[in-house]
User: Fold this.
Amino acid sequence: MIFFSDMDGTFLSSAKTVPAENWAALDALSEAGGSFVPCTGRAFLGLDPHILAHPAVRWVVCANGASVYEAKTGKLLHRVPLDRARLLHLWEIAQGRDVLFDVFADGRCYSLRSALGELGRFVDDPALLAAMRAMRTPVDESLRTLIESREDADRVTYLWRDPADRDALLCGLSEVEGIAIVRSLPMNLEVSDAAATKGTALTWLCVHVGEDIAGSVAFGDSINDLSMLEAAGCGVAMANAEPEVRAAADAVCAANDEAGVGRFIMTRLAGA
Assistant:
């Protein structure tokens, strides 16, 4: 029995905490011999260590499926990166725009130090803003220099304010081959290799550990969760999910602030 879950807007409350009912569900799942896999856009080091330490959590999918780790050791099991040439192209697309650009690599999210002070112009929600600042590793050098110093990275993210900048980004991205473009917030774009999605990572991990994909359950709320809900045996949208996600799901559970993930898991365990 294996459950995959997005974190922000899904397993975590709007205050970025784990509801008590979700913790209880993880305890019950562990006792039943099941597994819970965080499946997130976050970098590995941006995850709550208390979640990683739970006995039900053995693996974690990060960077929208670009990397899969052992939860307790941090050992990298699987990776589908973006090469340097595409990373440079993605960086160049952001130049001259009122856009913040982040690079996900080495289990971290790298941002220009100067950009951290600008986040408040792009993000209104205090809890989200605090979490985003805490998850970022500041870089003093140019991000182009960072990219040029390495062979590849997991993914990149753009934050935008003006829809004209978003449209210009999308126009530029249309010229880049072999990429997947999703979002987890209204004002961002998340870019990875076309083979690096939450859905492909779910499929890879189930095969790798010998779990039946048809028996898997996945929870999500945003566009970057769609591939995961479609790949799982049962895709569950949160009540607070975007309309496209609810439309694609097999079921809808209670909202993230009502511990929808935990309640659904407990119902499944009761019926097992």
The first strand starts at residue 2 and ends at 5. The mean pLDDT is 96. The two ends are 9 Å apart (CA to CA).
